[in-house]
């Protein structure tokens, strides 16, 4: 458990981490495909049938939606302290994301202009897991960027066991700015959002985490609707030198490991002594955790410590793995920031642990996993907007260039394109 390896083995470690997503889900996909087709063809009738089967309540068009009375009841049931914290976190998240909004722009010259418009999607569907655990932080992280983008219809879907939704989820959705909350979960909720039913409009974008059936459904409906990402198992990589506090690093390792048995925790350090100190501390702290069994399985499967010869080699290893979460626990973490190329979210210093980003600071915790930080980004305002190009030429300006358009079109063998340009100037 927790082997101490050299930086030369980084590629082998990365391949092992990426193998976590290679499970065969063909049986689950078959079930998902049947649900998607059924709801696409039969709408409410099929949707209500699955809700009765999986969530165990007699759903109809009237009780599918969370009512105002249920909203008020949810706020009464949640501890006032937690409500206050969620409201403060929501302010932080909105402050961060509203700065991502873009302005329309145009390049104007005499008789012509080109430009770009940023247009929010009309409908955004946010999926929120239910079951044994409630994740109000994910509710805030998915809804608030959509609100900042200007989406006018933000609808939430979450399973309601026996017709009841966890009150914390309901309160978080209202605080974040959701317009409707539907009592539906699983692949059937994704299908309803993607294809629409008699009670639910089609969504333009679907976001939010879920179990394997939800993930496969999102992947299957992509193209009918946009999706945020196909999230894999979570991971953290901690970059540390000899100045780092081993107790802090161990605690951060374990906070990631308790997610599930596939969670990956990697320490890259330039100090072999620190590597041994951290390993000892991790095993000591793990003994006191309620989820010790999950933690130990995660560490056994994917817990790794890498000892690099230099800090440059350590950074290179981190960039190669491209972690979802990257913590930099060194004497001068800001000095390494310009050298980081691949990471979903970067945490600088010993007092910026991953849970700060998960819950409160304002950055988004919906992040690229499994090395996809090489080419993708955290959930953001852009995910809920489209870009439309704009072109205007006056007759005089187009006359100056239409022969160039005509020549280019003919070079590609597209005579109709060429004539489209030329016909405007025929006698």
Question: Can you walk me through this structure?
Answer:
By secondary structure, this protein is an alpha/beta fold. The chain has three domains: 26-227, Rossmann fold (3-Layer(aba) Sandwich); 232-374, Nitrogenase molybdenum iron protein domain (Rossmann fold, 3-Layer(aba) Sandwich), CATH 3.40.50.1980; 394-425, no CATH class. The chain contains 16 helices and 14 strands. It has helices spanning 10-18, 26-55, 68-77, 80-97, 136-149, 167-176, 186-195, 212-221, 246-257, 272-286, 292-302, 311-321, 333-336, 354-359, 395-411, 415-422; strands at residues 4-6, 105-109, 112-120, 123-127, 153-158, 180-183, 205-207, 226-227, 235-240, 264-269, 303-307, 325-329, 345-348, 385-393. The strands form three sheets. The chain has a six-stranded parallel β-sheet, sandwiched between helices. The chain has a five-stranded parallel β-sheet with strand order 6-5-4-7-8, with helices on both faces. The protein has a three-stranded antiparallel β-sheet with strand order 2-3-14. Helix 9 (246-257) links the parallel strand 9 and strand 10 (264-269). Helix 5 (136-149) runs parallel beside helix 6 and helix 15 (395-411) packs antiparallel against helix 16. It is globular, with a radius of gyration of 25 Å. InterPro entries: Ald_DH/histidinol_DH (IPR016161), Histidinol_DH_CS (IPR001692), Histidinol_DH_monofunct (IPR022695), Hstdl_DH (IPR012131). One of its GO terms (molecular function) is histidinol dehydrogenase activity. Its EC number is 1.1.1.23.
